[in-house]
Amino acid sequence: MMFGEVPAPLDVDPARRILGLETEFGLHxxxxxxxxxxxxEVAGHLFHSVVEWGRSSNVFLTNGSRLYIDVGAHxxxxxxxxxxxxxxxxxxxxxxxxxxxxxxxxxxxLAAAGLEGTIYLYKNNTDSAGNSYxxxxxxxxxxxxxxxxxxxxxxxxxxxxQVVTGAGTITRTPExxxxxxxxxxxxxxxxxxxxxxxxxxxxxxxxxxxxxxDLYRRMHVIVGxxxxxxxxxxxxxxxxxxxxxxxxARLPMQDLALANEMQAIRTIAHxxxxxxxxxxxxxxxxxxxxxxEACLTAVREYVGDVIxxxxxxxxxxxxxxxxxxxxxxxxxxxVETELEWAIKHRLITRxxxxxxxxxxxxxxxxxxxxxxxxxPTRGLFxxxxxxxxxRRIVADAAIEHAKTEPPATTRAALRGRFVSAALxxxxxxxxxWVHLKxxxxxxxxxxxxxxxxxxxxxxxxxxxxxxx
Length: 468
Description:
By secondary structure, this protein is an alpha+beta fold. It has helices at about 40-45, 50-55, 85-100, 105-110, 145-150, 155-160, 160-165, 230-250, 260-270, 290-300, 310-330, 340-355, 360-370, 380-385, 395-405, 410-425, 455-465; strands spanning about 20-25, 25-30, 60, 65-70, 75-80, 115-120, 135-140, 170-175, 175-180, 190-195, 200-205, 215-220, 275-280, 285, 430, 435-440, 445. It has a domain at about 405-465.
């Protein structure tokens, strides 16, 4: 039965937005064993400890996040609802540590089954077989009748955003190898669609708000790269949020509609000089940096009006501007500790010079994979960060806190409290983004439709029932 009356939605500050990231991790098991090992088998051993306490390989954690095995037998981590970009960065990095914490037990279980080897987890977007797995961004927006046309305004920004927030990659072609801004760009096939795997659009339009459906929709962006560097994740989400604020306020913006989005995203991705132009629907031609600068200029115009000034906004705008400048000047030295494509390009260039090899050398491919290894000791990115070669946005203490504690200012706080209490009590329960349920002979279910609400008397009563 439904437990208690659903409260009216809060009157929310328009500057406040629910943000989330979903990361699909690459999974590889390196073993000398002669028996073939399937990805499903490796994932099963990796998640054994999760299944033991959660009775499923699809669980919600005490920090309000979701952890599960996705289609293709790879781990996926969806952050809890956050309402600041800095908070989201902490919870995204916590996800890396949470999935890595499963590795040691997974390797022990595989060894007990006669499969000695090493489990690798990668936070990247492609594997050596050409498969792609994504990083999905979620932005809660006000519901409007013209959602598809509203979303379409965002596409030129998303197509060109890679010149500042791309993860960078060595692209191999029959003609040779070159360095590109984004590994994800070549795997996009549509601007907008309700599908995610069949057509792989930049924006998924499936209407699943996980909130009051009459008030909100979820802008589900699946074109972005998985990024290891905290400042890059910060800029990727932060710049998108700021542009959405202008769009939601229905402010006049320059028409940047592209003639061919799929052609444009590939053209921009493959030209590290940033000089290649793409055609707009009205016949004009602009570079990726031009498109980004038009968006940045529009945002700057409304700081102090639609956009309230803050330290976080200042940081986003500063890094955004410096990123565009780095592409225009072809001098990434000012961002090579912050923007992932520049961090990785510096690393690959140094190794290439040391090895005196071409970009298609297999040793550089292994180096690139090692960069994205989430292991704190083995992963090259984490070693660079530990050596102080990458700027931080959040402290380690904040990341460790986010591993077990939910954001205190959103619905995730209610979910996290409930999961903690249910686990402590031993009661059967089920949880999803909007439901909390105690199972049994007298089931009780609560519907949490307001993602901004972090207190609810019904949840207090439900937890009291668990503890009685």
